[in-house]
Amino acid sequence: MPLSDIEIAREAKMRPIEEVAAKIGISRDQLLQYGPYKAKLSLDAVKEIGKRKPGKLVLVTAINPTPAGEGKTTTTVGLGDGLNAIGKKAIICLREPSLGPCFGVKGGAAGGGYAQIVPMEDINLHFTGDFHAIAAANNLLAAMLDNHIYWGNELGIDVRRVTWKRVVDMNDRALRQITNSLGGPGNGYPREDGFDIVVASEVMAIFCLATDLDDLARRLGNIIVARTRDKKPIRAKDLSADGAMTVLLRDALMPNLVQTLEGNPAFVHGGPFANIAHGCNTVMATQTGLRLGEYTVTEAGFGADLGAEKFLDIKCRKAGLAPDAVVIVATVRALKMHGGVAKDQLGKEDLAALRKGFANLERHLQNLAKFGVPAVVAINKFIADTQAEHDLIKELCAGVGSKAILCSHWADGSKGTIELAHEVVRIAESGEAKYKPLYADELPLVEKVRTIAKEIYRAEDISMDQKVKDLFKEFTDGGFGNYPVCIAKTQYSFSTDPNAKGAPTGHTLNVRDVRLSAGAEFIVVVCGEIMTMPGLPKVPSANSIKLNAQGQIEGLF
Question: Per the confidence metrics, is the pTM higher than 0.85?
Fold first, then answer.
């Protein structure tokens, strides 16, 4: 029986983190160590490193996710190890896992098999406490908002127009909608409220887009938490909350350094929702990685229609980044699901379904070309795959002018990504990349949404009611018209219907709501049903997680 991810990780002989840091020129006095195998890089070091010339940036994205699994993070880790194996100084940049999915059903976010980052248990659980700090900053703002109302409401906040929610890093559907301040006058004014999961907080999005402490403080101060009766916005700085929030986040803003199973450096920092926020690790970690290595390999959340689009239209635009190559991950299993095969039938060879499901991968390749970034396909190998299925994917990719490379990093580590690493280097050093965002800053907000809907999702058009139209006008009149738009929709399809697999066309993108993230500096456009507080499944992963007689964690993947 093959070893589980946690058993593989536990067998690894990790290097002291100062040795991993030394490989990329970081000295021990630039680290704030959290035990022997994880550390934060000091903000002074980040500032000094930021003066150096950047290396090459590689983005890893994927087809639309399915229950069959794609292995995007595993491929990111495997490619980073592969690049190091061929003599390139490569650094990996990933998001931090959320406790909610770890104890729910989705699992962790530290890779898998022999393409993992370690210490696996630490990374998937409390790690260095960043998410706790983000939750504390978010909830401090909520407490100060309610406290201001309690002590006379000098700003004239309309309690019906309070939009700021509290957060907890757990899947807890009971907290989605609540009534707070019950129990009499001493507890405040009762009002409807609710909780989001930490990764859905605007504080998380701000944390991941901030370039330094000053930028973090500025963005936090600009968060709009409520409005007055005449709809004047109330910001965090109006409540004098931004200073204390920044203090809570000061240490968290330092990038976290860990290692792969092969001892290569990885920054794991930040983790916003990809189907609500922009779904990328921090700008600070990415910029630091670029200046410490020849190659920085990072990933975007979910499929390329959400994750890569937001990476390219939001993160790159805001941070001045430009990827030199893109890797799009696909599996035989997932493509067959997009071709109509049920999950329990995926073990059987089905070339017809594979050919049909290829439409999903082809569309993602076409979309990435619109950003001027060259892409290579990584076929993440599964045991049940057949040679004929691998050959068909390669043939179909070649037919649309792309190259597909079989990768076995889950089983073989860096040895399974050598060919992919060489191809990434070839693309990155060829100068083929001519990155450009999909739309201009000055394009009206509604037209930005329509552009994404038509160009990326292949929708016929967009639709919205008068309330949403009025909000777009209100945001434009308020000076936010130049912001990028961040589409919140299902990750499972190009459309808003999660069951519409493959490459659907002719659908309409219905805009249900629009929300201003004034601190993160983007407009969230809600399409279809999106939850900002997940619930646990009938049998959550938490049921199986425990300590064994040796005090080791069991059941964590």
Answer: yes
